[in-house]
Amino acid sequence: MMPIQIVLDVFLLFALSRVFLRYRGRQIKLTEFIFWSLLFLTAVIGITWPEEMTHLANTLGIGRGADLVLYASVVTLFYLVFRIYVMMEDLRHDITKLVRKVSLKEPPK
Question: How many Å separate Cα 92 from the centre of its chain?
């Protein structure tokens, strides 16, 4: 195993431990725990056994395992950005409703 693989695996296992602690502390939901755990575990497997990623990539019609990882990463990032966008829009809507309520309760100055 190459040194970079060890460093990345240690980092990913640390990240996985943070996910577990946040779930145990009830800071994230079960679905979020499963999503992040699968993401980090998949990354550990891909880094530890890169030849398996190449085999999977070839099965899917992609030339290299690194390309498969890149494609999957971009798609995952797009999905996460979309989720953040939706959350921000929901927050904006909630803040607007709250400001309207507060402004109607306060007497004019």
Answer: 22
Verdict on whether the full-model pTM lies above 0.85: no
Dihedral sign from CA coordinates of 10, 38, 45, 53: negative
Sign of CA dihedral 77, 81, 86, 91: positive
Are 65 and 54 in contact, with CB atoms under 8 Å apart? yes
Cβ(20)–Cβ(43) below 8 Å: no
Quick one: how far is CA 67 from the chain centroid? Answer: 19
Q: Residues 59-101: pLDDT tens digits?
A: 999 999 989 999 999 999 999 999 999 999 999 999 999 999 9
What is the rounded distance in angstroms from the CA atom of residue 11 to the CA atom of residue 92? Answer: 35
Q: What angle do CA 29, 78, 54 make, to 5 degrees?
A: 95
How far is it, in rounded angstroms, from Cα 16 to Cα 42? 11
